Amino acid sequence: MRVSVPVLAVLAAALATGPAVAGGVSPPDAATFRAAITVAADDLEPDTLLSTRTAHARQVRLDGGTWGDGYLVARIDRRSGAARYEVHQRVRYIGQRRDYAAVHYRLADGTLAIRPIAGDRRGEDVCSTGEFNGACPLTSELVFQIEEGVLAAIVDGGAQGWDVKFKEADGDAGVRATVPMAEIRGLMLAVADYRAGRLSPRG
Questions:
Q1: Which of 59, 80, 81 is nearest to 68 (CA)?
Q2: In the chain, where the domains are located
Q3: For the segment 7-18, what is each residue's pLDDT rounded down to a tens digit?
Q4: pTM: predicted TM-score of the whole model, two decimal places
Q5: Which residues touch 203 (CB under 8 Å, ≥6 apart)?
Q6: Quick one: fold of 5-195?
Q7: Which residue has the higher pLDDT, 79 or 171?
């Protein structure tokens, strides 16, 4: 299949080692994420799934009362090789149920993009119903989709992280998260490996 020039440019540069952080320890680079990608292929499904879900275990405080853990998924059409990218963000908080409806992020040229989320998989770890009004631990897995060329252009900008913000339906409250650029690059490299026949199901 044909792959756009911006995507190829990102893949060619993706193996650069990340900058050192405090203490002389470097964060995971694209090669690290690439090596840890899981690949799920089912002959009864139209897509092969590549994911960074197990590439690194991290749960971080997103704001004062919200913890989160994010990962990326690429869904590759088994016939055409076309890829659809998804950003998954799991959030855990205490209180009343939040109704997340949209995601905000910057495009490569700095334009603010506002898109509806594609899914909100809710978990209620302790509460028996969604009408509980007390201090209830709640979880959501928020998902949004982004085109391959758009994501490649964002990664090519050179920043270390890509900031996204999930907004609630009322338009006021929201929670921010940062996706490491090395994680995106690593997934894109794995997609290129799969298209070239160098990647088998694993994980």
A1: 59
A2: 5-195
A3: 434 334 433 434
A4: 0.79
A5: 37, 38, 39, 40, 51, 54
A6: Immunoglobulin-like (2.60.40)
A7: 79
